[in-house]
Amino acid sequence: MEFLTWLENSGLGTWVRESPSVWAYTGLISFHAFGLAFVVGLSWMIALRVLGVAPGLPLAPMEKFFPLIWFAFWVNAASGAVLLISNAAKDLTNPVFFTKIAFVVFGVVTLRLLKNEVFRDPAGLKTTAATTKAKIVAVALLASWAGAIVAGRLVEYPVLFGLDRLR
Amino acid sequence: MESLGMLLDSPMLKSFVSWSSWVWPVCEIVHFVGMALLLGAVGLLDLRLLGVAKGLPVAQVQRLIPMGVLGYVLSVMTGIVFVSGDPFFPAVDKLNNLAFELKMLFMLLAGLNVLAFYLTGVARVANALAPGHDAPLSAKVIAGTSLFLWIGVIYFGRMIMYADVLYTQF
Hints:
The structure holds 2 protein chains of 2 kinds.
Chain A: H1 2-8, H2 11-18, H3 25-50, H4 66-86, H5 88-91, H6 95-119, H7 122-125, H8 132-154
Chain B: H1 2-8, H2 11-19, H3 23-49, H4 58-61, H5 65-84, H6 91-95, H7 98-119, H8 122-127, H9 137-159, H10 163-169
């Protein structure tokens, strides 16, 4: 706990919270929102296609979106890490925050699984219908990132879970 | 501005929000889901027009747009709850908020951009694009503008709570 408070009060943590710079708190949460929009938005579109939305859209070329999705993910990982440092004592004692991270891990895992399942086999891509396994992974992906969004927002509402926020 | 603000206040929505402390956060969650759907669908089309994943035929990419429209509708509906249904702040506070004003402006410009896409015939040219073919410059300008404007909407939306900082940032 003292370590967490030390993190929060570190130079970086304090600067993030108190600086009006566009690279501090407001910039970090903005980049976190941009990353969220592209990671969740684009991966949801691929998952929806796998589930049969826009069935005329060929699957194979959609693989080209993965580098951007991963780039956006790392923008969020980096901005999230710095934001976490500035708020370490509150977030790392909040079970809702850990739930969010768990959902993010599921999101990354399902994204990798989907990529391997749908795009690994060139022969399989010649058909436009996805395998059943791919569809299950696609549903899991939709749910994982939805969970990350839900938990991510609820981190700021610990009172809803009876968590005492007064320290 | 005051009277416009009073028109936008909704006692019905305010009592809805007050009914449970879950209402506001659930609306925020739906607002973000809508944002992801909108940016996913529109972003995918914009990226294709800008040259990413050229193997996709543009006309088929457009079939994802209804998901984007769904996202847009979800975001607008919950947005109305935030403006008109905030039991602690009157709507006029948002109208006087620079970040909110810029968000609305960027949304308006994004809407005009969409109109330009369809009404100038660029959409027709783009839809005829076979896989592998590059979109014309007009389509790329519209696509790039679209991405810039919607990212701006996200940015100004985020800054509504920190609008005072906005004045010092640019």
